[in-house]
Design a protein that fits this description.
By secondary structure, the protein is α/β, with parallel strands linked by helices. The chain is built from 12 helices and 15 strands. The protein has helices at residues 29-36, 72-75, 83-96, 113-121, 142-148, 151-164, 189-205, 224-231, 261-267, 291-295, 333-343, 385-390; strands at 48-50, 53-56, 59-61, 63-67, 100-103, 125-129, 170-177, 213-217, 242-247, 275-280, 304-309, 322-325, 328-331, 377-378, 414-415. Helix 3 packs parallel to helix 4 and helix 6 (151-164) packs across helix 7. Keywords: Glycoprotein, GPI-anchor, Hydrolase, Lipoprotein, Membrane, Signal, Transferase.
């Protein structure tokens, strides 16, 4: 969920192709040293993308998880840096029978070794958002988002990648979360796609394994599919590795057809990226989690790769599976219901009928609900290009209240090429305004309110 509201709103299978900027980057001694620091565990082999699905050395991988941010958005605490809290909660994760947690914000200056090992020992992966409330895109309006896409922001994002790339149980990175939440905010799409491109470029340039990178979309019917198409269109170096969205349409008692999940399967049946639910679990009525059987059933596995239930700890939005008080964890009825649903639904066998092709989508046409009118993307801010060769350096962490949204030097234009202004490929446009047609904006201002990243 996003910082603005704690209440929920009810990619490519090929690894990154080298652009002209990166064509001279080879595996030198620093790359070999970096790979040598990889922290592996036989219980969590690395996950990669093949066609429209995730795979490990053990076969197809389905996300069976929960969203995890004790304290909620207001605290913005890093649960992966809390060793005792991690040990406390992993015991409950094991009891639930999950294999993945999503964390919305971390401190990229902290040590995460202990918790990541505890998770790996339990066979649990991490799906991680790379943004924080103060280091994020500002979707207030087009000038604001253009201003917030700067080298200070990308330094923090890349530092988070540096901090977690060494763990084999880092499943994926979310480049952004719910930035587009209605038809008036689709102007932000090129910046979300640019950040996704930049993270993938950074991972490749720094010699890391190909950790999947993609976007988590809001539960907004009017442009959710257009965003899916957009994140998967174009050349391989600008396509995402996966697409995820939040879905609260199954409210018990419901069914595969009553919820409309059957229609979404049909809509996405030819989609070329792994697709999963980054949040699910409507709490309008008593939650029985009957959707678990459908999500991992034969009707959905050709298209979906699982999902994450919102959320582990009880916060203001009343979605918690447990209550946390110090070292004490008290299971709520929802914990028991989810545990039962998962235990009664075995992981699918075989490849689940996945599509091996992983083809690109057509970019969506501009319309009243989709404002993007070009396939060009913002060029990477020129001062951020050094990070690709030299690394991002120490992360800023979660301290302070200044952040990146009004710092640094933003991108100066759009290009049809890769991340860099200096590749010489594509045409660069000096004004970002050419990329969209704007509708009237009604979104409220405020640094915390516009970060569009967290719970």
């Amino acid at each position: 969920m996003e910082v603005l509201s704690k209440e929920p709103v009810p990619g490519s299978n090929a690894f990154l192709a080298a652009s002209a900027l990166f064509s001279t980057v080879i595996a030198g001694p620093t790359d070999l040293n970096r790979r040598a620091t990889t922290i592996s565990n036989a219980k969590t082999p690395p996950v990669s993308v093949k066609g429209n699905a995730f795979f490990t050395s053990k076969g197809r991988f389905y996300i069976r998880g929960v969203d995890y941010q004790p304290g909620g958005a207001s605290a913005a605490a890093d649960p992966i840096a809390d060793t005792s809290g991690c040990e406390r909660d992993v015991a409950k994760f094991k009891e639930l029978g999950i294999n993945t947690i999503r964390v919305y914000t971390v401190d990229n200056s902290a040590d995460h070794d202990a918790c990541m090992k505890t998770l790996a020992d339990a066979g649990i992966y991490l799906a991680l958002d790379v943004n924080t409330p103060y280091y994020s895109l500002n979707r207030l309006d087009e000038p604001s988002i253009q201003r917030s896409y700067n080298e200070v922001y990308l330094q923090s994002v890349f530092a988070t990648v540096d901090a977690f790339a060494k763990y084999d149980n880092t499943l994926l990175f979310y480049s952004a979360n719910e930035v587009i939440n209605n038809h008036n905010t689709t102007f932000a799409a090129p910046y979300v796609k640019a950040v996704t491109r930049d993270i993938r470029a950074y991972i490749k340039a720094r010699g890391y394994r190909s950790i999947p990178v993609g976007y988590s979309a809001a539960d907004v019917e009017e442009n959710r599919y257009e965003m899916a198409q957009y994140m998967n269109c174009g050349s391989d170096d600008v396509r995402s590795d996966f697409y995820a969205f939040n879905d609260y349409s199954w409210c018990d008692p419901s069914s595969y057809t009553i919820s409309g999940w059957d229609k979404k399967v049909v809509q996405y049946k030819d989609y070329g990226l792994p697709l999963f639910l980054s949040e699910y679990g409507c709490n309008t009525n008593t939650r029985k989690f009957a959707e678990v059987a459908a999500l991992y059933g034969s009707q959905m596995t050709p298209v979906y790769s699982g999902g994450l239930v919102y959320e582990y700890s009880q916060e203001d939005s009343n979605y918690g599976l447990v209550e946390i008080s110090g070292d004490t964890v008290t299971e709520r009825d929802d914990f028991t219901a989810l545990k039962s649903a998962l235990s009664n639904t075995s992981p699918p066998s075989g490849d689940g009928g996945y599509k091996s092709s992983g083809s690109a989508s057509q970019c969506p046409a501009a319309s009243d609900k989709w404002a993007v009118t070009t396939t060009d993307l913002p060029t990477m801010p020129s001062k951020a290009e050094q990070y690709l060769k030299e690394g991002a350096g120490a992360g800023p962490g979660n301290k302070g209240t200044t952040g990146s949204q009004n710092a640094g030097t933003p991108s100066t234009g759009f290009s049809s090429g890769g991340s860099s202004n200096s590749t010489g490929s594509g045409s660069t446009k000096k004004s970002a305004a050419v990329s969209v047609k704007l509708s009237g904006l009604t979104f409220a201002a405020g640094l915390m309110a516009v970060s569009a990243i967290l719970l």
